[in-house]
Design brief:
- The protein has eight helices and twelve strands.
- By secondary structure, the chain is an alpha/beta fold.
- The chain has a domain of about 180 residues: Rossmann fold (3-Layer(aba) Sandwich).
- Strand 9, helix 6 and strand 10 form a beta-alpha-beta unit.
- Helix 5 packs parallel to helix 6.
- It is globular.
- Bound molecules: adenosine-5'-triphosphate.
- One of its GO terms (molecular function) is ATP hydrolysis activity.
- This is Sugar ABC transporter.
- It comes from Rhizobium tubonense.
Length: about 260
């Protein structure tokens, strides 16, 4: 069995009086893609925001590779190997692919006082990365993000997460608003991420996309994890839909 990468223990999150996460405990192992499902308001985004350091938890523990950590900012999460690709994926449309890949972490050359961006190094790494995430079309790294398709943008966002060798890549609705071919591209990148040693948490409203790519499904409802070990190979989409809505209890389905 793969090792435990991240464990969340009894996480609670209040937004004022709203109890968004209720004693949430879950584990993500190394080299696994976990699908996180739940209806609107179930708490998925809040959970992801806690794990990516974007919102503070109210109580509970986050344990990464056996050590308890505090995630006070997204920089903390990144330092602990957690990279999140949000729905809007936070790319800067006016900047080039290469600049977006290195945003805030650009390689520089020259002396301490006269350093400037190492454009050639960025372009060379960008070419490699684009190939790694399956963009075989020859797109020059200095192409602006604004001229890419939705799927290509997601690919760039994923490439950014992969290049820093994050242990965990969180994808929040990566296939939203994408066409069929672009969606297949994103799913391929997720498989590639796992094959190159990363773990992923994949959130999508489209349960069919989730089923195509995940090793395990976690379902949330009303701020709680109601199923943590659903095996997509032995469970039907209809059964998972019934767990999401609360019509079917977990006890009937085990991994
Ligand atoms: N910033 C906030 N302030 C107050 N309440 C919030 C805030 N963000 C989320 N909530 C509430 O917390 C609960 C969980 O919301 P969350 O966005 O985590 O659910 P979700 O499962 O991601 O839903 P969706 O699929 O619609 O994005 C909801 O009741 C929501 O209204």
């Amino acid at each position: 069995m793969a090792e435990e990468l991240i464990r969340m223990e009894k996480i609670n999150k209040f937004y004022g009086r709203i109890h968004a996460l209720r004693d949430v405990s879950l584990t993500v192992r190394t080299h696994e893609v976990v699908g996180l499902l739940g209806d609107n308001g179930a708490g998925k985004s809040t959970l992801i925001k806690v794990l990516s350091g974007a919102v503070p938890l109210t109580s509970g523990d986050v344990i990464i590779k056996g050590r308890k950590v505090e995630l006070k900012s997204t920089a903390d999460a990144i330092a602990h190997g957690i990279e999140t690709i949000f729905q809007d994926s936070a790319l800067v449309p006016q900047l080039s692919i290469a600049r977006n890949l290195f945003l805030g972490r650009e390689p520089v050359k020259g002396s301490r006082f006269f350093n400037r961006l190492d454009q050639a190094a960025m372009n060379a790494s960008a070419r490699d990365l684009l190939k790694r995430v399956g963009i075989t079309k020859d797109i020059p790294p200095d192409t602006a993000i604004s001229s890419l398709s939705g799927g290509e943008r997601q690919a760039v966002a994923i490439a950014r997460a992969m290049q820093f060798d994050s242990d965990l890549i969180i994808l929040d609705e990566p296939t939203n608003n994408l066409g069929v071919a672009e969606t297949q591209g994103v799913l391929r990148f997720v498989r590639e991420a796992r094959d190159t040693g990363h773990s992923c948490i994949f959130i999508a409203h489209n349960i069919h996309h989730v089923f195509q790519v995940v090793d395990r499904i976690i379902v949330m409802r009303g701020g709680r994890v109601v199923a943590e070990d659903i095996n997509p190979k032995t469970t039907t989409i209809e059964q998972v839909e019934r767990i999401i809505t609360g019509e079917e209890m977990l006890s009937a389905i085990t991994a």
